């Protein structure tokens, strides 16, 4: 009866539909062919090429890449103190930026997730997303204007009579420099600014999922607001913080624009990659350097997974 | 006459979980047939196997005598009312109802006529232009019903359709569904975990547990002659004594401890764990001296002179005729 | 139940911190807009000595800016088109299927945004060197399509996962085959997610620099033009104007994308 009841049953599209209905796994694999072909060749292929290049070395006399597998480049990377300094400096900056971003993001995320309602909530989400998607370069450029010696920040501090404090801060070893726009402190501020939305959104998502009655329960059981915060809110927000920190950590590790536009003389991993492949023409060393953040991020992801970061992604 | 639906040793597994484990049964045309069981018992998977959302891993599903074990849902003359109604939010109520006709390329005026007819049948004649989001739960339920019935299916599948409604509306809809089924004369297959619903509406009931059929029969047979301890416990919460036979709570008398047993009756003593007032009846929960928990249900007001407080001793008794022997599990 | 306990209402401090954070996020963008109108053309003096529209007129006459803009729009359009096809296919394949290796594939498809852009960039360059491909318009598009695809994939997968399976089953139950179900039920539900994904992918590609530098050779997209300008501050006022233009070009698709995917609770 089934076949007779439907005149459309013989149409080829329907026949194909039925064919794939019976073989749903086949349909899935067929759908995956184009994206996997693309991804497999272009992206994964490139990553393997990168890995391969890092096991080549440059001939010091002819300055050409010798396509023979060797550990020479990694040895160069790991034994020269200057290179290790770069790795250390970049990692320190990434960790500092991650912590600062979490601290600054929390009150914003907390407010938009728990207090803002309706239109106000929508406003907050747009207000966080817009700067996140606004042109990366333009934002970096804006900070160059703000941090410049004659720029807006100096002017503001001057107007407040705090220019002495700024000068003292810039004299501090390790973070200072001739002006904010050429100091580690300035770079740190720019990094925190750039990646802040990537921290706010996952933390807000995690806090949105904390039922309000959980906090009522805590208060009901006699916890002071500060106790509720430390014992209930923060542990529940941690997966969001971990998820956000993956972005802040990874983005800081790989960035080379910010250290070259706003920054101190010390090199960062990204700058080294950029410079080695460019002016130095040493692709193997650039490749080896870019493997460092992959390894660091791998370690970081393993730690974040333990903290439950992927549940909040 | 060919059965409307037949299962022959049907098996369906999801990974290592066997949802339906070698099930065979037949549903007669025009029958109101309920599939009863706890969640995870396999009743919903059986419904989905009839609809075609799942295909069997082994065995055969037949509709009207034809093997449909590899037939997609859109080529089965069967329609479903979903638990969450599954109304399409981007279409008006009328467009929802006529969806089945439109995808089969029935002419627009005919679609409209039949759709409006169906909406009138479920008493929603004026709701055609509205969106599903503007309807109450009960109204959505009726639209889902109209959307399925407009295709004139031979079998209507209902997946816990009343689960989301409140008690009063649910009882109303039960009556209405039963009336509709009699009027249209089509086969209804009704999945529920509510034994009261299954017993009151159905011609026959099948009880599922862990992917297998425990018992299949009329509501009276299921209630009065549970075949297994599971059925006795799940349908009407009978007492299972020594794992060998079942006794319904309403057949157990309560008397002061030490009073003689009535003739031809089984008598057992124990202490009261608790008693609960339930309106017309009172539930007595008694732990016997051999440590079985037995529940007796007596009309409220009877045995008023008894001590009811927990810890008090009482005697329970029932006629041997009320002992229902059980098959071993 | 919502009570009026003191921690339920935001304290003045919490309110201030939240608004200060939002201000921190927006002030730099506002300042860029302000500087586009300053009459000062040599330094970043604040406050600006005066305001003018002169730089906009000058910028519009610059053919190098227009060429860079055209290249960026071309790259973004093609990369978005490729990303829409590839990302949608991947999303449909992985949203609900139970195939083996699904978790690995899901991870693979988000790798280009989980790893820093510089790795994608240097990897593409390393591959180009190995295979002997010269940088061109097409190598830029290939690089952009890779991460744009992730954006589309994420948007569509999120929407598909929210699409109740019972709607698809109901459609097939009522006699619609897979194609009819796709056209009448699935497509209307994911169309906005597709559009939003496309918008975001376009905005991302239009603005991308980190990967582009490695794959572009001598081609100048607008961000590369802008980047070079940062170290050659001859035309500071023009740079400011271009910054405002870039903000304007990316703002529209981003706002639209938000509007198309906003949660139901934020709708009136």
How is this structure best described in words?
The complex is a heterotrimer of chains A (313), B (329) and C (268). Chain A has 313 residues and is mainly alpha-helical. Chain A has 15 helices and 2 strands. In chain A, strands 1-2 form a two-stranded antiparallel sheet. In chain A, β1 and β2 (65-66) form a beta hairpin. In chain A, α3 (24-54) packs across α15 and α6 (118-133) packs antiparallel against α10. Chain A is flat and about 65 Å long. Chain A starts with a helix and ends in a 7-residue tail after the last helix. Chain B has 329 residues and is α+β, with helices and mostly antiparallel strands. Chain B folds into 2 domains: 5-229, Rossmann fold (3-Layer(aba) Sandwich); 240-321, OB fold (Dihydrolipoamide Acetyltransferase, E2P) (Beta Barrel), CATH 2.40.50.100. A 6-stranded mixed beta sheet of chain B has the order 6-7-8-3-9-10, sandwiched between helices. The radius of gyration of chain B is 24 Å and the shape is elongated. The mean pLDDT of chain B is 91. With 268 residues, chain C is an all-alpha fold. Chain C has a single domain, classed as MetI-like (MetI-like fold, Orthogonal Bundle). Chain C is 73% helix and 0% strand. Chain C has 11 helices and no strands. Classes of the chains: A mainly alpha (313), B alpha+beta (329), C mainly alpha (268). The interface between A and B is medium-sized, with 11 and 14 residues.
């Amino acid at each position: 009866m089934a076949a007779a009841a439907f005149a459309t049953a013989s149409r080829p599209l329907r026949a194909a539909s039925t064919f794939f209905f019976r073989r749903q796994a086949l349909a899935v694999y067929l759908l995956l062919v184009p994206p996997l072909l693309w991804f497999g060749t272009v992206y994964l292929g490139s990553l393997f090429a990168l890995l391969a290049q890092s096991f080549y070395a440059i001939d010091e006399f002819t300055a050409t890449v010798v396509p023979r597998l060797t550990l020479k480049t990694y040895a160069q990377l790991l034994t020269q103190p200057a290179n290790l300094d770069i790795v250390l400096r970049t990692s320190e900056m990434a960790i500092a930026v991650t912590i600062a971003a979490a601290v600054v993001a929390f009150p914003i995320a907390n407010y938009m997730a728990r207090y803002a309602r309706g239109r106000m909530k929508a406003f907050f989400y747009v207000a966080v997303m817009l700067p996140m998607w606004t042109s990366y370069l333009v934002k970096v450029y804006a900070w160059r204007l703000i941090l410049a010696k004659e720029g807006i920040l100096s002017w503001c501090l001057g107007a407040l009579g705090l220019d002495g404090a700024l000068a003292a801060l810039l004299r501090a070893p390790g973070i200072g420099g001739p002006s904010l726009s050429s100091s580690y402190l300035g770079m740190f501020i720019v990094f925190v600014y750039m990646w802040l939305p990537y921290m706010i959104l996952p933390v807000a998502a995690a806090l949105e999922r904390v039922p309000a009655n959980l906090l009522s329960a805590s208060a009901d059981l006699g916890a002071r607001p500060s106790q509720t915060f430390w014992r209930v809110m923060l542990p529940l927000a941690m997966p969001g913080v971990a998820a956000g920190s993956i972005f802040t950590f990874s983005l800081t590790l790989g960035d080379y624009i910010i250290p070259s536009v706003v920054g101190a003389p010390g090199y960062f991993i990204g700058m080294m990659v950029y410079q080695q492949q460019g002016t130095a023409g040493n692709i193997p060393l650039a490749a080896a350097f870019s493997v460092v953040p992959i390894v660091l991020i791998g370690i970081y992801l393993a730690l974040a997974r333990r903290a439950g970061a992927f549940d909040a992604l | 006459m060919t059965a409307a639906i037949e299962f022959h040793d049907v098996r369906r597994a999801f990974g290592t979980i066997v949802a339906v484990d070698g099930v065979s049964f037949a549903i007669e045309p025009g029958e109101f047939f309920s599939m009863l069981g706890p969640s995870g018992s396999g009743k919903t998977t059986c419904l989905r196997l009839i609809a075609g959302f799942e295909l069997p891993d082994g065995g055969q599903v037949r509709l009207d005598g034809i093997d449909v074990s590899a037939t997609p849902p859109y080529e089965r003359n069967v329609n479903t009312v979903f638990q969450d109604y599954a109304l399409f939010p981007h279409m008006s109520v009328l467009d929802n109802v006529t969806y089945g006709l439109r995808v089969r390329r029935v002419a627009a005026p005919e679609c409209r006529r039949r759709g409006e007819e169906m909406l009138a049948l479920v008493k929603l004649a004026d709701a055609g232009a509205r969106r599903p989001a503007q309807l109450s739960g009960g109204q959505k339920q009726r639209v889902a019903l109209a959307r399925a019935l407009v295709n004139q299916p031979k079998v209507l599948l209902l997946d816990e359709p009343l689960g989301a409604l409140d008690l009063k509306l649910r009882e109303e809809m039960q009556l209405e569904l039963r009336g509709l089924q009699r009027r249209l004369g089509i086969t209804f297959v009704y999945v529920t975990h509510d034994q009261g619903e299954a017993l009151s509406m159905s011609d026959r009931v099948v009880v599922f547990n862990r992917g297998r059929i425990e018992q299949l029969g009329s509501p009276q047979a299921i209630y009065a002659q549970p075949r297994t301890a599971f059925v006795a416990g799940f349908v009407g919460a009978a007492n299972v004594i020594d794992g060998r036979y079942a006794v319904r709570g309403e057949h157990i008398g309560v008397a002061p401890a030490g009073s003689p047993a009535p003739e031809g009756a089984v008598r057992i003593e124990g202490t009261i764990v608790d008693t609960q007032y339930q309106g017309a009846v009172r539930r007595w929960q008694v732990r016997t001296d051999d440590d079985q928990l037995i529940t007796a249900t007596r009309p409220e007001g009877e045995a008023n002179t008894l001590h009811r407080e927990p810890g008090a001793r009482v005697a329970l008794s029932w006629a041997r005729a009320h002992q229902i022997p059980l098959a071993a599990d | 139940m919502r009570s009026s306990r003191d921690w339920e209402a935001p304290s003045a401090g919490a309110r201030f911190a939240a608004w200060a954070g939002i201000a921190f996020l927006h002030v730099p963008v506002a300042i860029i807009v302000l500087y586009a109108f300053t009459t000062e053309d040599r330094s970043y003096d604040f406050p600006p000595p005066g305001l003018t529209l002169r730089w906009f007129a000058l910028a519009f006459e610059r053919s190098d800016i227009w060429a860079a803009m055209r290249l960026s729009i071309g790259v973004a359009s093609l990369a978005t088109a490729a990303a829409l096809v590839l990302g949608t296919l991947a999303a449909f394949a992985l949203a609900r299927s139970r195939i083996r290796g699904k978790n690995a594939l899901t991870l693979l498809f988000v790798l280009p945004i989980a790893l820093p852009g510089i790795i994608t960039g240097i990897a593409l360059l390393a591959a180009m060197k190995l295979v002997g491909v010269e940088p061109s318009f097409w190598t830029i598009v290939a690089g952009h399509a890779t991460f744009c695809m992730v954006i589309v994939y994420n948007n569509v997968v999120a929407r598909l996962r929210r699409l109740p399976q019972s709607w698809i089953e109901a459609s097939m139950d009522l006699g619609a085959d897979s194609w009819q179900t796709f056209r009448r039920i699935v497509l209307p539900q994911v169309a906005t997610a597709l559009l939003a994904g496309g918008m975001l992918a376009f905005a991302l590609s239009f603005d991308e620099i980190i990967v582009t530098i490695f794959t572009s050779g001598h081609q100048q997209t607008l961000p590369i033009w802008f980047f070079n300008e940062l170290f050659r501050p001859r035309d500071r006022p023009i740079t400011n104007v271009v910054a405002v233009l870039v903000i304007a070009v990316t703002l529209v698709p981003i706002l639209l994308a938000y509007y198309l995917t906003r949660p139901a609770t934020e709708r009136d």
